[in-house]
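Hi everyone,

Forwarding the result from last night's run.
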Amino acid sequence: MLPEFGSVLMWHVVAFSLACLLGGGSAVWTYYHRDQHAAQAFLLFLVVTVAWNATVLFRIVGPIALGWELHLIEQFFQVLMTLVWLYFAVVYAGYRSVLMRRSVAYPLAAVGISMLAVESFPPIAARTNTNPTTIQEPFAFVTWTDTALSGVVEVLALAAFAIGSGLILYKLLTTNYVQAWQIALVFAATSGAILVELVESGIPHAVSGVDYPAIAVTGVGVSYVVGLYRYDLFGYTPVDMSDVIDGITAPVIVLNPEQRVVDFNASARATFGALAAGQQAEEVLPDSLVDAVPLTATEPTETEVTLSRDGEDRIYRLYAAPLDSFGDSQGLAVTVRDLTTQRRQQANLDLLKQILTRALRHNIRNKVDVVKANSQELLDRLDGPERDRARDANDAADALLSISTKTRVMKEVAENRGRTTPIELTDLVATTVADCEQEYPDTVFETEFPEACSVEVTPDISHALRQLVENAAEHNPAADATVRVTLEKTADAAVITIEDNGPGIPDNELTVLERGQEEVLDHGSGIGLWIVTLVVDEIDGAIQYDTGDDGTTITLRIDS
């Protein structure tokens, strides 16, 4: 028989049915967002809340004969709800690791199991829920009288719910991501449930024994669904910020719009020892750092400051990232990186480069010129073994001069990294081959290339091509030494092929190039192929060496 419209029974059926529907819908929505922070714990809370409301509804409309069994199930879900709520709050606030400690988990588990046993385990519950009374108006319902032990469980349950709510509220109050009206929403929802539990007997048309807080807790769940998903309070919890900044090795300081310190990591505390949450930045941070922080910036900014630390001036770079919540400025996250060591290393490298450049360009070249002049004079005057020694000295001087030149080329390649320019490869290949023909008149050069082939590439491609063609001629002792250079333009690349009929590239040279580094006992004999490797890496190209006793074929691919 359906309850009469407008009756107290109808009011109860509608209220608890609606609570089940809203709670179930919230649980489904949360399930589809279960990958978010603390969402799985929140889903568990919603499921328990729906089960609690459903049990109360069954008690209202179900047969009196099942009153005791349904009462025990209802008490079970009522106590379990408070425990699950506390678990959700701990996870949401970022204290899961604390909860998992044995010294915490075991005592809490013992208390929780005891609370559930007292309220829902039949042999014990029969002693804590006494004097069953069946009422007929405004509808048939069975109630029990709570003993003092049941009152203790109720106090513990309220304490668990209140502690959990307090943890969440504290986290929201101490972050600059969440606005006041959002905090008010959370506070009203959670405190309302506790208030209903305390004054449920004063609810109009209330029926003794009906758990009206189940409806209020559903309101908590629905309110949190709105706050956590519509306003992204799952993503804006301060624990997320803390987890991030604690994992950063550089000092990180979070300031609110009033330049008060909101959060910081361990590295920031070590660098700026006076840091404390709530303090004005000007009280705990150097003036030059505070002056450099652009609080009104709407985009991330970078700036450098010099700070004195331990009696030494050090250079720091500040990365200031504005924080906002729904379009409103909420302060800055400032990352402080010490550049002092890096700058000193760069200065040393610059000095070394200057010395190296001067030594290669002037000192070594001048000394080599002296060696060549003297060895050439000896070549003109001597005969026999002495002349051979003078020729060896002259050849060694030429080799040193070549090394000096190639080393300067490597320096240029390193300095040009990241630069590109349009290159006409046809002209470049023709010019390179023409130069080598002049330098190696005993070698026959053959070419084949299109009329035009332009690519956007590093200007150092000329050095790489020069090394490949020059090596093919220089290291070819054959009587009919031949070098063939071809250029082919495809739809997506330019392919340069250099073939020779020399003895091939030694295996150890190729092994070093494939390994990418030289070792004391395993290294190459020259610098030319390293120049080629650096250039190919820079242009994201590909080079293939096919070498043997009858010659070498090198294929250089330049993507267009």
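The chain has four domains: 8-238, 247-338, 343-415, 418-560.

Cheers,
N.
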